[in-house]
Write a structure and sequence with these properties.
The chain is an alpha/beta fold and about 475 residues long. It has 2 domains: about 260 residues, 3-Layer(aba) Sandwich (Rossmann fold), CATH 3.40.50.2000; about 180 residues, Rossmann fold (3-Layer(aba) Sandwich). It is built from 19 helices and 18 strands. Strand 13, helix 12 and strand 14 form a beta-alpha-beta unit. Helix 6 crosses helix 7, helix 11 packs across helix 14 and helix 12 runs parallel beside helix 13. It starts with a strand and ends with a helix.
Length: about 475
């Protein structure tokens, strides 16, 4: 099968979070399913891509891409890695700037990119069976496919799949730019219009051949107003073509047996090295090195959406117990200030680093005993899966992918309602389990042997493509 991924980011080239991890891993997992699968990825050629990675790319050719009244330069660059062909769309006007999202002209930038996805196909000698688009930045791919490109006999059999990684970010713009920026005529405006504006995610849900989210629970949650951010109407109307497929993680990238960032390597069969990593992370965060004290890690954006308001509500009460908490993240100033101020009052129990550092995150995964994830919503979540891989027990709220990946009392601890003291009760259960050496040993082994590989997820995606 011939599959083309269109996305705004991809590890290791460029990424801001879970989406980049998915695009970095899923194509390779599909290729491993069958060497007959021809899997390719197309991305913008951002300035943020490191020069050493750019040096590996070969220039294919330049073409022009029409976007409404514009006729824009489009350079095509290519590299092959791990059996996957990657194409990069070059246009310095759109992509030679710092940061990949959040610019005033993102509507035009990603409209150009989505048009380019189709216009490069004759020049790379590839007509995919399926184009798989991800989040609002590529929502115009299934929209353009339906409105324009499927009218071309050569492209008429291409199917499109749209994955919702986070429904909160929908690509909402004023209707006045429909023709000028998106090249969508008045006769088709209703297909992308929602609640008085252009909503690209709504258009993709309407026009893609299939839609999925990144966990089964999230696929059900977004049918309700609390989770759908206004799109529950179209989600329920089109529920017949929406499913949920839980993400996996790259187990070679997240591997305590080989991770260069941690102090001592270890495995599920030989987990003794975790004790050395615990001592090291306690020291790195300036905490007393005591193996009998449970260490709870928090690796997240410090925002209410991630449940940080719950943590703030009970943290002082928690720190009165025999426990240490280490925090790594950035976010809202009120939460940054709160953690830093409380750390000054509990210097031997709470340590905070207001930053994000992937190498330090690895050392926390390896050294902490538990990871706290009390999210309000979590479409999939990767932190809980990575934590399990390193034998660090997740404490999570039962939402989205957290609910689908963590089983209470087996490979972590789960609470249902969004309630601070219910969360504290669950943390206390985890601490009690930690103090039972044999029980904790079993939980750690269960966590480390949980199957979060991409293999099972890739099979489900492949079945979706075939259907």
């Amino acid at each position: 099968m011939k599959i083309l991924f269109a996305a705004g980011e991809c590890f290791p080239y460029v990424g801001t979070g879970g989406l980049g991890d998915v695009i970095g891993a899923l194509p390779k997992a599909l290729k491993k399913l069958s060497t007959k699968n021809d899997v390719r990825v197309v991305l913008p050629l951002y300035a943020d891509i490191s020069q050493d990675l750019k040096d590996q790319m070969a220039f294919v050719k330049s073409i022009n891409v029409r976007l409404s009244w514009r006729n824009q330069y489009c350079g095509i660059y290519f590299v092959e890695a791990d059996g996957i062909k990657y194409y990069f769309i070059d246009n310095e006007f759109y992509f030679k700037r710092k940061g990949i999202y959040g610019h005033f002209d993102d509507a035009e930038r990603f409209a150009f990119f989505c048009k380019s996805v189709f216009d490069i196909l004759p020049h790379i000698d590839f007509v995919p069976d399926v184009i798989h688009a991800h989040d609002w930045h590529t929502a115009l791919v299934p929209i353009y496919a339906s409105l324009y490109y499927k009218k071309n006999p050569e492209y008429s059999n291409i199917k499109t799949i749209f994955t919702i990684h986070n429904i909160q970010y929908q690509g909402v713009f004023g209707k006045e730019i429909a023709g000028d920026i998106f090249d969508i005529g008045y006769e088709d405006l209703h297909k992308v219009e929602y609640d008085g504006a252009i909503n690209l995610m709504k258009g993709a849900i309407e026009l893609a051949d299939a839609v999925n989210t990144v966990s089964q629970t999230y696929a059900e949650e977004i049918k309700t107003p609390y989770y759908a951010h206004g799109l529950e109407g179209i989600i329920n109307e089109r529920s017949f073509k929406i499913c949920g497929i839980l993400n996996g993680i790259d187990i070679e990238r997240y591997n305590p047996r080989t991770d260069k960032n941690i102090v001592k390597h270890y495995t599920a069969k030989n987990p003794e090295g975790k004790k050395v990593n615990k001592e090291a992370i306690q020291a790195e965060f300036g905490l007393p090195t005591d193996p009998s004290v449970p260490v709870i890690g928090i690796i997240t954006r410090l925002v209410e959406h991630k449940g940080i308001d719950l943590v703030a509500c009970i943290l002082k009460e928690l720190l009165e117990k025999k426990v240490q908490v280490i925090v790594l993240g950035k976010g809202d100033r009120q939460y940054e200030d709160f953690f830093c101020a409380l750390a000054a009052h509990f210097p031997e129990k709470l340590s905070v680093k207001i930053m994000y550092d992937t190498a330090l995150a690895s050392r926390i995964y390896a050294g902490a005993d538990m990871i706290l994830m009390p999210s309000k919503t979590e479409p999939c979540g990767l932190v809980q899966m990575v934590a399990c891989r390193y034998g660090t027990l997740p404490i999570v709220r039962a939402t989205g992918g957290l609910k689908d990946s963590i089983n209470d009392g087996e490979n972590g601890f789960v609470f249902d309602d969004y309630n601070a003291h219910l969360m504290l009760h669950t943390i206390n259960r985890a601490i009690e389990a930690f103090n039972d050496e044999e029980k904790w040993k079993t939980l750690v082994e269960n966590a480390m042997t949980s199957d979060f590989t991409w293999k099972a997820s890739a099979k489900k995606y492949f079945e979706l493509y075939k259907n």
